[in-house]
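Structure in, sequence out. Go:
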């Protein structure tokens, strides 16, 4: 077990954002503006505030816009590096494939993971939040949220002792944010498409995924209407 403080994060930003068209025809979804700044910048500011120092962003669609907009991260006191799936592999590799491909840019230690198109202002990426996970044997710790209207069935449940459940009477929605260990992706080849949910479900059946319910602000910015609501 390790008690190392989690100071690294991976932000998923490779998707095409089909439901956000025509806005995403010319701008990647994580760079669309929410209240005057790019959506992904809300994550960067919260990560920097909590003492995270290293951020990797995976990209594919219109990926050249990310370094142009965000640079190397020094504006936030971060070091940002990019895993360019478009240039290297011709397109996005799905969630687990993208993570496995980006892992060489991360230290072999727990890391924060989140989608670049989710709005969670003020989330605390604090050492206190990460320490219990780092001290455990879990492969992932998921933050779940109350089910939004567009996803009423939810994704996973939470047991009385804080384990994530694939089957449960009450399910919540995976926020896309969590803590992960690189070991979860030991058998996921880099450079190939692979989904994350099957890996999580396998680990859940072994009791290696914990979960917590998050009640703070959260929006999956998946449609132009939701973006408009956030900006009103």
């Amino acid at each position: 077990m390790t008690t190392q403080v989690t100071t690294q994060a991976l932000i998923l930003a490779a998707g095409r954002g089909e439901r956000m068209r025509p806005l995403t025809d010319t701008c990647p979804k994580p760079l669309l503006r929410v209240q005057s700044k790019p959506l992904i910048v809300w994550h960067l500011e919260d990560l920097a505030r909590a003492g995270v120092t290293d951020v990797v962003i995976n990209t594919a669609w219109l990926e050249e816009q990310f370094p142009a907009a965000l640079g190397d991260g020094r504006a936030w006191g971060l070091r940002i590096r990019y895993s360019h799936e478009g240039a290297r592999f011709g397109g996005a590799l799905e969630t687990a494939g993208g993570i496995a491909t980006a892992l060489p840019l991360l230290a072999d230690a727990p890391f924060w993971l989140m989608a670049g198109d989710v709005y969670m202002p003020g989330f605390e990426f604090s050492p206190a939040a990460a320490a219990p996970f780092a001290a455990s044997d879990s492969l992932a710790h998921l933050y779940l949220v109350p089910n939004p209207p567009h996803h009423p069935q939810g994704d996973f449940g939470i047991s009385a002792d804080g384990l994530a459940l694939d089957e449960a009477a009450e399910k919540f929605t995976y926020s896309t944010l969590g803590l992960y260990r690189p070991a979860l992706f030991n058998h996921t080849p880099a450079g190939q498409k692979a989904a994350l949910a099957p890996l999580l479900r396998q680990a859940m059946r072994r009791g290696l995924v914990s979960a917590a319910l998050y009640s703070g602000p959260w929006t999956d910015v998946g449609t132009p209407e939701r973006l408009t609501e956030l900006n009103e």
